[in-house]
Amino acid sequence: MTLLAYERYCDEILVQTDLLGALVKDADLTRRVPSCPDWNLRELVVHVGDAHRWAGEMVRSRAAEELPEDQVAGAGGPAGADAAALAGWLTAGAAAAVDALREAGPDTEVWTWGWEHRTAFWARRMAHETVVHRADAALATGTAFEVAPDLAADTITEWLEIVAFVQSKGDPEAAELRGGGRSLHLHATDVPAAEWLIDFGEDAFTWRHSHEKATVALRGPLTELMLAFNRRQKPDEGGLEVLGDRGLLDFWLDRSSFG
C-alpha cells in the first residue's frame, strides 16, 4: 500500500468535501456528533472548513512559519443556522485550498507541523482530515459511510505516521506506546495486502506492512478497520473482531487519542 498521487489527494479533498456538504445541507446543525461529543454538526463543519482555509492560505502565501488562524479570511463560517449556506461555505473553502495546492505543485516548500515541509504534506493531510470528519457526520446523521479502499488504507498509514511523529516529539501519551515483546496487527479481510504490524519497542513503536502473529489483532472490512483505528467506532463493531489481548488494543487507542 503506497502513497497516492498528489492530484488524487487534491481530487479527494473536493470529492470528500462535496459528500460532507451533502450530508449537512439539510441537516439539523445542532445535532451532536457521537464520535466527537464536544461538537455539534455545525461545529464539525466549521472545523473542517477552517482547516481547509488555514492550510490553503499557508500554501498560497508560501508560509515559512505557522499562520495565526485569526489571519485566515472567512474563518468561522457564515452567521446563522442556514445549513445550505454552511455547506456552500465549506465547499468554497475546499475549492480555494485545492486551487492553491494545484498551483503550487507537490514540492513547494511551506511550513507544516509535521515531518515534511512541502505542499504534498498538506494535500494528503487535508484529504484524510475530510475523510474522517465525513465519517463523523455520517455517524451523526445515521448515513452509510463508504470510502475507496486505497484512500481508507492510506488514512491508516498516515495516522501511524502522525502518532510516530508525535511520539518522537515527546508527547506524554504517545511516549507510553512502547514496551518490548508486544505487537498489534491490523488486518483488512476484504482488500489484499492491507495489513499493518505495530511493534512496541523498548523506547518507541515501529510499524510495517506485514502479516504476522501478534499480541492482538484487529481484523475485518477495511473501512470499518479504518474507522475503529481512528476511534470513530468500537473495535467490536462493524463486523470487526479482536483476537488476543484486547487490553493492548485499548492501550493503543487510549494513547493515540490526540488530534
Automatic annotation (TrEMBL):
Domain spans labelled MDMPI C-terminal: 150-250
Domain of life: Bacteria
UniProt KW keywords: Isomerase
Protein name, UniProt field: Maleylpyruvate isomerase family mycothiol-dependent enzyme
Domain Mycothiol-dependent maleylpyruvate isomerase metal-binding: from-to ranges: 16-138
Pfam family, one: MDMPI_N
UniProt keyword Isomerase, yes or no: yes
InterPro entries: DinB/YfiT-like, Maleyloyr_isom, MDMPI_C-term_domain, MDMPI_metal-binding
Annotated organism of origin: Streptomyces mutomycini
Listed GO MF terms: isomerase activity
